[in-house]
């Protein structure tokens, strides 16, 4: 057994909570991960993990090793990268998580620009409106929109988006243009269930917060589908600005109540502890901060 492999199995097992999850992240079998762990403990002459039928915990020796092992692995990875790639070429796989519609429209093109600069990299982009568990799923960087949950993740704010009221001109010609937020109650409203606004749309009208009860014949869990339905004239939608900018510019959609808008939501890049960040992840984070999705944010 290579000492590096053994320590990598140890750290990954602690992060994921099981040999099976660690093996899946490292691309080896659970049997081999368990074998590496046993050989590492023999080599150090100390038990590092407490194994029970329900969980894996750290011994005192394991706690001491965990305080130093991640930094040691990162330093080794940096040295290997410097020697193998002369400090310039990045390789390996980057796993990135992003919301579905935002990821399709903006994260994917951004990652393509980054990968074009580092052709030896493989990008694994995982799109879902459910929050990924970075440690358990081996995610290097997560892009998230909205309020952050309490966690041990490190967050870097990239910018913000705003939700806007829009509709197709044909719908507004047919149903009439609202003059105030309360008028929305008489319109077909396309509701994005990802916004979790069952009590109505939270809006700001002329600087005053309002919650307007709305109804309509379409509920969808996709910002892209909400925008597409609005383009088809199905009603008024509350859409993130990143989704509808070109449609507004081309006149396919029209702002409804221009003095009224929905929530402003922060966009963050999240990652695990800096001390465990690989060179390729650091490079991606720096690129995301500079790129800002091609001036989107």
TrEMBL record:
Keywords (A to Z) from UniProt: DNA-binding, Transcription, Transcription regulation
Keyword Aminoacyl-tRNA synthetase (UniProt): no
Top-level taxon in the UniProt lineage: Bacteria
CDD domains the record matches: PBP2_CrgA_like (cd08422)
BP term (GO), one: DNA-templated transcription
Domain HTH lysR-type: 1-59
Keyword Calcium: no
Matches recorded under Pfam families: HTH_1 (PF00126), LysR_substrate (PF03466)
A GO MF label: DNA-binding transcription factor activity
Record's protein name: LysR family transcriptional regulator
